[in-house]
Amino acid sequence: MSESNWYVVHTYSGYENKVKTNIEKTIENRNLQDQILEVSVPMQEVVELKDGVRKVSQKKMFPGYVLINMIMNDDTWYVVRNTRGVTGFVGPGSKPVPLTEAEMLNMGVNVGKVEIDFEVGDTVSVKSGAWEGVAGIIKKIDESRQTVTINVEVFGRETPVELAFTEVKKL
């Protein structure tokens, strides 16, 4: 059995929830629950102030896009690609590109717990990203977001940097 990954699907603007509903109906009708695991329209809470009244509302984080956790094969590709309102997968040409774990964590989507073997005060090295190869001391560990905050030296000053668990390794 192949491994599932998160993919981004481009939709007509304003059709995100309709596309989500249509894909979920197709999953049920074609019995694809074991291949298309989750369909998501990421939302964020926004506080608006109108006429002096605070109003909390939900807004789409990525208008025009839907996230899908699925096992990519010809059947699942066909089902998603031919859903009404879908314009295609995000990726070069016709080949969908899965999102990395770090990208999913940055969007607030939990991809599974990562077990860590370090604690506050330990020295770690950054494995990837803009800070690759830089060493720093852990100042804070956030289990719920699966991030660590380390201090790195920038222009002679200690600067806090937040990184995903998967981006650091213990020295």
Please outline what is shown here:
The protein has 171 residues and is an alpha+beta fold. It has three helices and eleven strands, in the order βαββββαβαβββββ.
Mean pLDDT: 85
Q: Can you tell me the CATH class of the largest domain? A: Alpha Beta
Record field, number of beta strands: 11
CATH-defined architecture of the largest domain = 2-Layer Sandwich
Structure notes:
The chain is of the alpha+beta class and 171 residues long. It folds into two domains: 5-99, Alpha-Beta Plaits, CATH 3.30.70; 123-170, SH3 type barrels, CATH 2.30.30.30. The protein has three helices and eleven strands. The chain has a five-stranded antiparallel β-sheet with strand order 10-9-8-7-11. The chain has a four-stranded antiparallel β-sheet with strand order 2-5-1-6, with helices on one face. It has a two-stranded antiparallel ribbon with strand order 3-4. A hairpin with a 2-residue loop joins strand 9 (147-154) and strand 10. The mean pLDDT is 85.
